[in-house]
């Protein structure tokens, strides 16, 4: 499970047209973001994974950590909303009987990035098609097979990548590898925002940059 808070703030002049992500260091995994919407406002927020035995952060603590990572990004922000994010695991509930679970209801949030839009759309399409094409109790089984056929391998890779990203050294090496090679960047985007997997190219880039000092590309 993760916890994130989001609001809308006036876009600072230096961030017009920019999407900014700053990873945390003291509460891994965590990151703050500022995404310019193009209308003078930016979607700003902060999220972190919740760990057993560690108290859940309060609203004040979430906003404080956002300000630490992105100073003044939340100045003048409104419409704050916070929510728990059910992080996906390789085996997830798809429903029972005539009830088909999709998106957040199925616990489908990427454990590496906290993203869930792709999963919601993909499983929603599968559930809709299954409901249109199947009658009776077979709908649940058919949907489960289709959903797991689409996502099971991917979610095994995201589970591993999420564990790896708990290490600041590995996270830093991954960012530097993506900065140095567009192909690694694209592979990581697919892994974090869609249906990608850990590729051999990404592993090579990660290994190469783990051997280098931070800040060198």
TrEMBL record:
SUPFAM superfamilies: FAD/NAD(P)-binding domain (SSF51905). It comes from Kribbella deserti. PANTHER family: CONDITIONED MEDIUM FACTOR RECEPTOR 1, GERANYLGERANYL DIPHOSPHATE REDUCTASE. Signal peptide: none annotated. It comes from the Bacteria. The lineage of its organism: Bacteria, Bacillati, Actinomycetota, Actinomycetes, Propionibacteriales. This is FAD-binding domain-containing protein. InterPro entries: FAD/NAD-bd_sf (IPR036188), Geranylgeranyl_reductase (IPR050407).
